[in-house]
Amino acid sequence: MTDALQPALDVNARQVSCTVSHVAGRGHCYPGEEVTFYTRVQLRAPVPALRLRVWIPDGLLPVRFGAPGEALPTVVPGPGGRQILWDLDAAAGEPAEFGIVARVEPTATDRVLQTRATVEIEGREGASIGETTAVAVAAKGSYLRYLPALYERDELMARFLMLFESFWGPIEQRIEHMHLYFDPRMAPAKALPWLASWLGLVLDEHWSEAQRRQLIAAAASLYRKRGTPQGLIEYLSILGEEARIVEHRANNLVLGGEVKLGQSIALGTENVPHTFTVILRGGAPSAADDAQFDAEFDARMRRIKAVIEAEKPAHTGYTVRFEAGPDARHMEG
Question: How far apart are CA 190 and CA 174, in angstroms?
Answer without folding.
Answer: 16
